[in-house]
């Protein structure tokens, strides 16, 4: 963990840490700074650093590591003490507790009131719960403050907090299931039904529904339900209405800017799915404009999504321009930093080359993908689709012996998975169908091929990398 923390520090944070560590002693021989510098360089092992410092005294070395970890935390807290409104609230609570221990109750009340006002202005119910608890504790020590009014506020706050917490728990489960893959997550009807019921239960309560925090929570819940159900028409209507109402009520600000950009991204993608390409591109440009707000605060995070929207739309209406955009995106340093972004770009290039019958180039991109370190971190369903596409390129290149070897390897690697459960029913059919495509078929095998080809249409094709039915027709020269 210490190594991970050290690796995460920016140059500015490193500089502040050095000042923090040297605040009492500027000796150039400090062991904690030596340890920190060696961890930053990453060239020496734990045992080598320990030997240089203590001659392999493990207990003393571990104490130094723990102290350095604590000091890094203190330095980061001091450096970022005024980073967010939440931090300002927490700072006021900490000051209130400091003066409470000194029995300076008027000062304590002052800082708690400051914290309460800031928490109320941002609808931070979690911190209000903490503040009201401290105010009640303060009321026990004085006679100037009636605790009953505070207790009532705490009760009202807890009612809203409990309902939001319930939704938060369900959203966490849902987000975990869809986050591990690139738009290839499987559904979870139980969670979706429970989430739908939770939203329905509390949105009828006007005092809760009017709360901006709750309105954003509702948006997150509803949008994910519609995404999971792939109900893009409803998602488009819902997003248009929600964005308009949030704008009219002036709900968007720096604190929730991330959500605004997410909404525009979802809307652009929904419009694409609904074949409204011109409108989708217009929303993509609106997204780009919003990315430049607040001094480009979230520009880097959403740059890939902007290019993604451009690419998909132009792939339908102007394919050469789509590939130009894809290559432009691949040159962006911001996009290059995230391995999954590069995975997406290479995969789309492979699909493009396959569609253009440039099978050697398609295979070259796919081999590059499967050898990349990030491949193992992909969702199993996406890996299966990519490996199947590689097998299809080998079929096109005519190396039938290699096709058979690759089929056996793919089956062996994923034999323990239920392919239907991970949304790969069509890939499972293709695995049975391809061996029939590459042989001289007798009548029975021809019938088997017919049955398998027909069964492809029984399963959703929305997540296919390419059109399997069209490819089978081309390979058989028939109406399969």
Describe the structure.
The chain is mainly α. The protein has four domains: 2-79, no CATH class; 85-162; 230-334, Alpha Horseshoe (Serine Threonine Protein Phosphatase 5, Tetratricopeptide repeat); 369-480, no CATH class. It is 75% helix and 0% strand. The chain contains 26 helices and no strands. It has helices at residues 2-8, 11-21, 31-41, 46-54, 58-79, 85-101, 105-121, 125-139, 147-179, 189-202, 206-209, 212-228, 232-248, 257-273, 277-291, 293-296, 299-317, 319-330, 333-336, 339-355, 359-371, 380-397, 400-413, 425-437, 443-455, 468-476. Helix 6 (85-101) packs parallel to helix 8, helix 8 packs antiparallel against helix 9 and helix 13 (232-248) runs antiparallel to helix 14. The longest helix has 33 residues, at 147-179. The radius of gyration is 29 Å and the shape is globular. It starts with a helix and ends with a helix. 26% of the residues are buried. Mean pLDDT is 86; it is low at 178-189.
Please render the helix and strand layout as text:
Blueprint: H1 2-8, H2 11-21, H3 31-41, H4 46-54, H5 58-79, H6 85-101, H7 105-121, H8 125-139, H9 147-179, H10 189-202, H11 206-209, H12 212-228, H13 232-248, H14 257-273, H15 277-291, H16 293-296, H17 299-317, H18 319-330, H19 333-336, H20 339-355, H21 359-371, H22 380-397, H23 400-413, H24 425-437, H25 443-455, H26 468-476
Helix pairs in contact: 2-5, 3-5, 6-7, 6-8, 7-8, 8-9, 9-10, 9-12, 10-12, 12-13, 13-14, 14-15, 14-17, 15-17, 17-18, 18-20, 20-21, 21-22, 22-23, 22-24, 24-25
